[in-house]
Amino acid sequence: MSSDGALARLIRSSASAGPTGTEAESCELCAAPVPEEHAHLYDTAQAELCCACGPCSVLFAGDGAGGGRFRLVPRRRIRLRGVDTQTLGVPVGLVFFVPHADGTVTAQGPSPAGAMRWEVDAAAWRRAAERCPELATLEPEVEALLVNTVRGLDHHWIVPVDDCFRMVAVVRREWRGLSGGSRVWPAVEEFFAGLTERR
Questions:
Q1: Which of 46, 49, 161 shows the shortest CA–CA distance to 99?
Q2: Which terminus of the chain, N or C, has less C-beta within 10 A?
Q3: How far is 59 from 105, CA to CA, in rounded Å?
Q4: Residue by residue, what is the 3-state secondary structure of the chain?
């Protein structure tokens, strides 16, 4: 995804605004103000997400006025049980996996500077999807498998991809020094505790 999209702005504003600060946002298609909780569209031409008001999210998504260029980011969240992501070869416990339209899968883990990125072995991902069929239902580009196994936790979620970038924003906002300091992991745990299932 482009570093200049809506999610990059979300990361920057969250990192600088503090826990309660917010930055007013507007629809990137019509410039109308949008609430804090608003829709995102994936721009297939620019490979980035953009903020959208309610009417534009309906008008431009799918086969609407955008001519198929935009895809609405889903809202579903599903908590998964018993998923083994160690076989995917990613060396961190806080990570999200995004499938792409070309069949590849990338993994991204947050760091103080943003998201680190790895290519996931295609065969390993297929085996993981065979063991957990829900992974095969992920919508390319707009949904992700979000994982937190740090400090013995066992969180595996199918989430909208914007949830992943909100998590990255939490890490950037709270990280201190080389090791992260005392605030980052409680903040990450609070983020995961706040996730609720929705279909």
A1: 161
A2: C
A3: 29
A4: CCCCCHHHHHHHHHHHHCCCCCCCEECCCCCCEECCCCEEEEECCCCEEEEECHHHHHHHECCCCCCCCEEECCCCEEECCCCCCHHHCCCCCEEEEEECCCCCEEEEEEECCEEEEEECCHHHHHHHHHHCHHHHHCCCCCEEEEEECHHHCCEEEEEEHHHHHHHHHHHHHHCECCCECCCHHHHHHHHHHCCCCEC
Distances 47 to 2, 64, 69, 103, 191 between C-alpha atoms, Å: 6, 18, 10, 15, 26
Please tell me the pTM assigned to this model: 0.83
- Residue 145, both tokens: 């498998």
